[in-house]
Every structure is written in C-alpha cells, then in structure tokens.
Amino acid sequence: SNTPVKVAVTGAAGQIGYSLLFRIASGALLGPDTPVQLQLLEIEPALKSLEGVVMELDDCAFPTLAGVEIGSDPNVIFDGANIALLVGARPRTKGMERGDLLSANGAIFTGQGKALNDHAADDIRIGVTGNPANTNALIAMSNAPDIPSERFSALTRLDHNRAISQLAAKLGVPVTEIKKMTIWGNHSATQYPDLFHAEVSGKNAAEAVGDQAWIENDFIPTVAKRGAAIIEARGASSAASAASATIDAARDWIKGSAEGDWISMAVASDGSYGVPEGIISSFPVTTKNGDWEIVQGLEIDDFSRGKIDASVKELEEERDAVKELGLI
Ligand code: NAI
C-alpha cells in the first residue's frame, strides 16, 4: 500500500541513530516499495543536532522516505506510530551506581511506555535497543497496559549476529551456513550464546567445533564481551552494528524469520524453559506476520541450564530493583 508506515525512533541524534535513520529511510527495514514516515524523538538540547541529521536525510533524496517529524514530546512523536525503536537511553556515567542508572532510565521508559499506550497505532511493535535493554523494555511494557505484552521486545540480535560471525570465522565457513543460533537471557555479560542447538551446514555446531574448551573459554566470553572490546578499540561503543541489528530484528519480526531457521529476541517469558513468566529474556523465536513464537522442545543439558539460570537470575534482580523503585 502507499500509506507510509510510521516508524518512531528515540535517541535519534545519537550515534546509533546516525546509522539507523539512513538505513530505515533507504528501505532496509520495510523494502523498496513501502514508504516510511520517520518520527524522531530527542531531548530538547539535542534537537538542533537532530535538525542537522534531518537536513542530511533530505539531501539523500531517498525515494522511500515520505516525511520526517522531530520533537521532544513522546505524546506527539509516538502518535500513530506503527513501529517504535527505542534507542535513546541514559548511559552509565562515572560514579553512577546501578540503582541510579535504573532510576534514570526508569523515568524515560515509564513516560515512553505511557505515551505509546495512549498514542501509538493499534498494530504497534516496539523494539528496545537502549540499555539496560531487557529491563527498559519491561518498564515500558508495564506502563502500557493497553498494548499486548507480546508487542514489546529488547534487542539481543546484535549478540546473535556476533555469535554467528565468531562461529563462521572459527570454522572458515560463510555466515549463511549458520542457522539456529540462540542467545539466552539478558543483553549483558551474563548472556548465553548457545552452540548446542545451532547448526553449521545442517550439522550440529558444537559437534562441528568439537572443542568444549573453545566454546567455554573463547566463544562465549568473546561474544559476551564484544561490546567492551569495541569500546576499547574504537573509543566509542558499537553503533553501526547495533543499528544493523536493530533493523534485522524489526524487519524479521514484521516480515517473518526464514524457513528452517530461528532468531534471538528478548520477549516477555510465558514460562518456557523455566524462565519466570513476565521477565523479558532472550529466547530462540520464529516470527510470522508480526507475531513471534518461542521455539519449543529444545533439550537443555546441565551446562546450558547453568548458563541460562545465571543470566535469568540477573534479570530477576533487575526486575526486583525496578519494582522496588516503583517503576513497574
Ligand atoms: P548516544 O549517547 O550516542 O545516543 C543516545 C541518544 O539518546 C542521545 O542523543 C540522547 O540525547 C538521547 N536520549 C536520551 N534520553 C532521551 C529521551 N528521554 N528521549 C529521547 N532521546 C533521548 O548512544 P548510542 O551509542 O546511540 O546508544 C544508544 C543506546 O543503545 C545506549 O543505551 C547503548 O547502551 C545502547 N546499545 C544497545 C545495544 C544492544 O545490543 N542492545 C548495542 C549498542 C548500544
């Protein structure tokens, strides 16, 4: 159809935004035949910088970009939004305790959750990239009682893509040979990238690697600490790759995951795999027509069980902390 899809992006003047907006506007999210209207949210002091980004968007003359609106009021910017990508968040600064970080982000995500609840379109899908992503998504979801909880997700697709890339490099195969990668748990250093259910050219990935020590001491920590390695090398946190994963996640959610494969998404648990109901935890999921389903029936051995439980415990602690702060 020719009606533009309204895509809201928060933190639009930030580093991820600088990559993300141009990819969305060029059709990477919804394809070359679907016009998009960008609705960009920033805090007041960043609006001038965002105006510069909009000038650049104009200068690209993207055929799929139907219009751009910017502002600092989520009630206005989320109006009629079909997709909301919540990228803007309060980063942890020096001397900030975890509780301070959770309450600073709590203020942002309670307000944005309410604004989405009151103003977004009926078919809204919400992806949270801003950290702590899982718990920010939980806060937004809890403050949007009229939006079905399955419309909220947090981004673990970057971790998923990193895991695919590391495994492909280890085995010397193209990334396209790797299927059924899973990230379990939190988008944090406790996340569990799982090779025991992944496949390489149709064969079990852990068996193809055949080296438990590499999995435990190399693969898992490399994927889990990749964000820190990029900060160390680049002097800034991952941005283009985070934008790319944000697009991959939203595109697959709406357009559907590939036949014979699955993706990793942090979604509200229904109790699958012993993850407490309601927690936003990463699972293997398949998607179709904007709905996701957790892949069922995977056998979880003791090693994987321990890793999943450790990450889920961290998520429960974050949930308890934001509950105590009255944010959910
Ligand atoms: P950045 O600091 O460059 O940009 C964030 C932007 O958000 C800033 O322009 C800021 O003004 C804006 N912002 C802050 N509060 C806002 C609010 N209430 N409403 C609207 N905008 C607001 O950060 P960057 O590099 O773009 O990263 C954004 C977030 O994504 C961070 O929280 C980062 O930790 C997270 N991230 C998540 C990843 C994931 O895989 N889930 C990967 C990489 C980054």
UniProtKB/TrEMBL annotation:
GO BP term (any one): tricarboxylic acid cycle
Pfam family, one: Ldh_1_C
Residues reported in the UniProt entry to bind NAD(+): 11-17, 105, 112, 129-131
EC number, UniProt record: 1.1.1.37
Function: Catalyzes the reversible oxidation of malate to oxaloacetate.
Family: Belongs to the LDH/MDH superfamily. MDH type 2 family.
Protein name (database record): Malate dehydrogenase
Lineage, opening ranks: Bacteria, Bacillati, Actinomycetota, Actinomycetes, Micrococcales
